[in-house]
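Consider today's protein:

***
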Amino acid sequence: MDTTRELVRMANQIASYFQSYPQDEAVTETAGHIRAFWEPRMRQRLLEHSSAGGEGLHEIVTQAVERLKGPSVGSA
């Protein structure tokens, strides 16, 4: 099993759930969900994949990853 592909699939599912929200809120909620429910190794793998070009990532996930790189603020 390709774990990166699986992480991309899971991250995209989260983004798909929130895509009907206003763009900024969708990005915030996606980042918040990943921060709250993914273990650190999963988040790190996603960040690495994004840094390597992020093939297959939904636009919302790509933007959420940028927020995950910063300090944790509030509940987001």
